């Protein structure tokens, strides 16, 4: 199976490392870059790897595309390479947030199988060609759009199961997407707006805002056919805050670097669903607009 990895950021290089023994090529924004990158594992051991920079030929031959770009870049990237994508080629999305599929359907009307891959792995880019794996985490993937080719799907799942740490395939991917969205809605915007580590959100002031944001999410999720339990979500969020107390959320990092954030696909997604169903979402709306303000 020929695999194309789109994106040469921390996650793109992380998946490149774990799939390096397979037939992979890597597509980046830059038209030319080194085909060597350094990888430091979670125990501090480093190694160097070579990979094949992707040309249009590699894109056209790909049986699977793993898209490791931010939410706001997904539809643009897929549109750019769409003329070369084979009809059976699987597309795997690793971005945060929700709403991408609806966006893709406006520009990519094909029936290719599209999968969501939810990862809690963490990596940090030390330089353009050097990443360090900072957290093992787990990886869960499932079909979210299109029709899967049985043979290709089995081969892809087998490759990922044997190459990527803690990988599982699940039929419950949409439910898991909502759970991850709840975590991101609770943590990312607040840490970015207040410029604090995740652990600071344990305070009563933040916890009340988190509770209100999650209540709104549950109401709009129900209108989308997804039933979620408040106590279970809050328990999960508190657990994530505890386990990542010293971490800086990706959204906070983006704001500090004056880069675009994924807020449109996190709290902004809840804001738009509220408008769609005529449901007030004041907490998520405020968080969404505050992040938009400071990131602009």
From TrEMBL:
UniProt cross-references to Pfam families, sorted A to Z: ApbA (PF02558), ApbA_C (PF08546)
Gene3D superfamilies hit by this protein: N-(1-d-carboxylethyl)-l-norvaline Dehydrogenase, domain 2, NAD(P)-binding Rossmann-like Domain
Taxonomic superkingdom: Bacteria
InterPro entries (alphabetical): 6-PGluconate_DH-like_C_sf, 6PGD_dom2, ApbA, Ketopantoate_reductase, KPA_reductase, KPR_N, NAD(P)-bd_dom_sf
The reaction(s) this protein catalyses: (R)-pantoate + NADP(+) = 2-dehydropantoate + NADPH + H(+)
Pathway: Cofactor biosynthesis; (R)-pantothenate biosynthesis; (R)-pantoate from 3-methyl-2-oxobutanoate: step 2/2
Keyword Oxidoreductase set for record: yes
Ketopantoate reductase N-terminal domain span: 3-144
Keywords noted in UniProt: NADP, Oxidoreductase, Pantothenate biosynthesis
E.C. no: 1.1.1.169
Protein family (similarity comment): Belongs to the ketopantoate reductase family.
Protein's name according to its UniProt entry: 2-dehydropantoate 2-reductase
């Amino acid at each position: 199976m020929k695999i194309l990895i789109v994106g040469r950021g921390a996650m793109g290089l992380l998946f490149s490392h774990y799939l390096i023994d397979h037939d992979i090529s890597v597509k980046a924004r830059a038209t030319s870059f080194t085909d060597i990158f350094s990888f430091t594992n979670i125990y501090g051991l480093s190694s160097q790897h070579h990979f094949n920079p992707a040309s249009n030929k590699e894109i056209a031959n790909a049986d699977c595309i793993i898209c490791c770009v931010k939410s706001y870049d997904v539809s643009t990237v897929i549109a750019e390479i769409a003329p070369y994508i084979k009809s059976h080629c699987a597309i795997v999305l690793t971005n945060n947030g929700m709403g991408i599929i609806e966006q893709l359907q406006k520009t990519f009307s094909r029936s290719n199988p599209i999968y969501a891959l939810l990862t809690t792995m963490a990596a940090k880019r030390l330089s353009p060609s050097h990443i360090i794996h900072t957290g093992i985490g787990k990886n869960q993937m499932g079909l979210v759009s299109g029709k899967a080719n049985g043979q290709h799907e089995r081969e892809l799942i087998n490759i990922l199961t044997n190459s990527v740490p803690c990988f599982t395939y699940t039929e419950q991917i949409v439910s898991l997407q909502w759970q991850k969205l709840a975590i991101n809605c609770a943590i990312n915007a607040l840490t970015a707006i207040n410029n604090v580590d995740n652990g600071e959100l344990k305070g009563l002031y933040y916890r009340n805002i988190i509770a209100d944001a999650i209540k709104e999410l549950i109401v709009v999720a129900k209108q989308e056919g997804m039933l979620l339990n408040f106590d279970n979500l809050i328990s999960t969020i508190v657990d994530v805050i505890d386990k990542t107390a010293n971490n800086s959320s990706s959204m906070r990092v983006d704001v500090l670097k004056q880069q675009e954030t994924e807020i449109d696909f996190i709290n902004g997604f809840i804001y738009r669903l509220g408008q769609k169903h005529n449901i007030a979402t004041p907490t998520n709306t405020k968080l969404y607009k505050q992040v938009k303000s400071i990131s602009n």
